[in-house]
Amino acid sequence: MKAFMVISKESRKRSGIGLIPGFFLLLLTFASSAQSIYEQVGRLPITTYTTEEYGGYPTVLATIQSEDGLMYFGATGGMYEYDGVSWRSIFNIRDYVTVRSLTKDSKGRIFYGGDDFGYLEVDEKGEARAVSLFHLIPEELKSGQTIVEILFLNEFILLRTPNYLIRLELGEDFTLKSLKSWQSETRFGKSFLVGNQIYVRYLDRGLFLLEDEELTLIPGTKDFFGKDAVSVMLPYPEKNSNNILLGGANTGFYFLEKGALTKFPTEVDLLIQEGNQLYGAISHQGNYILSVLGVGVVIMNPKGEILKKIGSDQGLHSDVVTGVYLDKNNGLWVTTEDGMARIAIDSPILSFGKELGINSAVRSIQKKGDELYLGTNTGLIKFDAIEKEFKSGLENENSEIFGLLGDGDNLIVPGRNLHVIRDGKAIRLDFPQDGSRPQTAIIPKDNPNILLVGTTLGLLLYEKGLSKQFPWELRGKVPGIGPISNHFFEGKDGIIFTNGHGKLYALEIEAQGVEPIGNQVIKPTVFDVDPSGSFSKIDGEFYMTSPQGMQKYSPEEGKFVATEDFSAVENDLFDFTQFKSGILWYESLDKKKNILKRNKEGKFVKDERTNSIAPYLSQVDFIDEDSILWFGSPKGLIRYDPKKDNQTDKEFFTLIRRIETKTDTIPLPFYGRNKGLAPVERKENSYRFEFAAPYFEDEKKTKYQTFLEGFDSDWVDWTDNKFKEYTNLPPGPYTFHVRALAHTGRISEEAVYSFVVLPPWYATWWAYLLYALLIGGIITAIVKWRSQKLKAENRILEERVNERTAALEKSLADLKSTQSQLIHAEKMASLGELTAGIAHEIQNPLNFVNNFSEVSEELIEEMKEEIDRGNYDDVKVISDDLKDNLGKIKFHGKRADGIVKSMLQHSRKDNSKKELTDINQLADEFLRLSYHGLRAKDKSFFADFHLDADPNLPKVEVISQEIGRVLLNLINNAFYAASEKKNLLEESGNLGDFKPHVWVATKNTTESVKISVGDNGNGIPDDIKSKIFQPFFTTKPTGSGTGLGLSMSFDIVKAHGGELLVESEIGKGTVFSIILPKKP
Q: Residue 573 sits in which domain range?
């Protein structure tokens, strides 16, 4: 059997244990850190838990924390688990199992004792359940007994009941290997494990040590602890490692050193003498945390001095404290007769409120040494160190006090009137009786003899007085300054800023001392600002918000200018400040407070380092000589000690508490903290994850963030939800991540769970293979059947195809013929348009031929007469004239022949041969033909026209009759559009000096030639511009056009490799442009 004790009876006898009289220990000095009065009275952050929350009986008796951070509480009638989010009862509430003791073995397993004895085991669903071992204890040892305490030593379990000490040795499978018991002749009191030694108190017998399988009385303890219960037994290392501190429930503390018992007088004795009982204790950072029935929690240092008392006046539900327990993050759990509480024992935050006399919101703070003054909504209050509470600091002054100002040992108090407190006495300063009230004050650093006081009606100037009776003398009101409602801010260059009622004032003090009131002393500069905006001094420079963005004061320019210093947070910034504490912070649009810092580029960014102070930041602040920060709030006062802010030293992780599918709950080992587990393969595709962070500091404000790798693209937004559901996940691998965000801004370690959603049986590889084989067989059968059928159908189809092919060839031939006829018809239509013009063009040369023929006949007759006369010289002259006439007849005959040939060429059905063509001549010819043709059809038609020919235009290879047809169509349309506008203007009486005008222009470019046809008609509307090149589309009246002109023109130009473009403006006219390449 393993040795249960480390010392023997003989070694104790040699030490000569006995009672040493005397109280010399009072003369000993101890190393103890000094504690201020404010640390004693300030209220630590406390979270209380009521029976309504955990759903059990009120009296809680035991506390322990699992290795996974979960909290367990033993109580009358049950045991409860708390993970920071939800509570769960370990036992059925109807079973009424009282649990009085909780402890852990060397492996971290939790054992419980009370009406039952056993351990907690996490089942396959991840839930802790109680496994009873009560059956291992013989009936005679447990009958009528309850297990009060459980201790572990050297793999042995020691159970204490009122009448028995029972030692168990268990195997790995929790089978009983050995059992030994000791029976009390009277009754056993508390047992303790100190320095690997077991101590137990024996009613009416004293304190006993369990060694060598026997209970041995420690000499001298019967007189002290025979009647009084031993409530505390802890090491006292201040003297030496073997010294033990004993606490009697009703007699106080003793030292047990080298077998000698010595009384240790402490300040706790006074509490015990008042009828309170010492119930238990734990040690913490060299101090002792005591539970004192009737008082609450008492923290005592090694000197026996009370550092702090925490009772119902500071937030506990009851002063009857049944136990204290420190969790992994040094949170102090306090169990009482009415629920439990957690105290942030090491918190840097202390609060002061109504329990200490602060009955309204704190508006201003001033502290020097231990003297602390607060300006509140109901006047000035001062902390009384003797009474340990705040009391009135200024009689008959119940108004709001905003701007307390320290002046050496004096305090300047702006309230309803203006006072100076000197040596604890109030001196009322001279103040105008004009209905105004002082708001704030400042003594400039470079002008300590001047006091500026901002009031509800302006700015007052005081000069330092020469007598104690009048420390400051009023000089007068500074002109040009309106009501002041904010603090004064003094910059590096001595400029002082303040604001009020939409105005910002920059005050420059131009001289030392005080001269007659006026701008000679104080020079104000006034800025109009956003009344709802923010303004503050930051590191000696001045910033403010504005509708145009953040602005910064430029001393060189004497005005505020735009700045990028806040660009990283400007869009989220609602308010910002840096006041007496020196902390720069801003309030975001969602009302969250964030501390700022400068980055390497000099811009302000969020300080992501975790801290405890951010939620308490206020524009009412102060920093004292010990670097303690003080903040005012509507509920009182906050004290912050940055040296104690150790957020990063605390464990903070998230647990996946439960995973459910539509069919069952999934086993969850390690709550998702072990990231090395292989993915779990399951068929379900809908999951619900429940999670919690066992971080018990204002845990109701903890937020959570999730990320399902394989489904989400990134972390989702922070939310208050403690669960996340996914439905209808596609088959594939996934990893669920979850993490928590504490109210201090710290992010926890994440919990992960990897799983694979398996495809349903009909989507597995073998199912797909079966599908493929089945489909393949079906396809093969269908193909064979279909092939035979298709062969028969193909024969019939071939016959039908031959018939249809012949019919189609005939239809195609007919279509080509129809198309050719249609094109020819359009040509004929164009020819018809030309007929009158051609007739006009032919008539001119014919008139010349007729005229010269008649003249020639007359010349012949004259020549005959001259021959008869013998005048041969005249005959020769006449013959020359006759020859000239014949030449002219020949010229005009050829001209008429050319016109006829051109007409025949235009009417020819097909002539696809391209020839070098003079585009200028072609344009001129068709411009004139079009005009005369229209004049011949309508004698009232009239229009101006002209040709702007480029003389450098080269000949281009085109089918001249095709391009001529395009020009004719475009020119006809242009004359029609211009004439139509003239007719419409005549009908409306708005003709004025309008004349129809058509022009044709040619232009030589690098790669092409351009022919433009323009008119001054009404233009083409945008809604039909895209339709004009469509076949059969026309805007002319029915019967006036075929709708094929522009369509055929577009095709002709395109066939030549060119473009036909249109530009039109309503009311001004239209220009069609033909772009033809020089090289086809």
A: 530-609
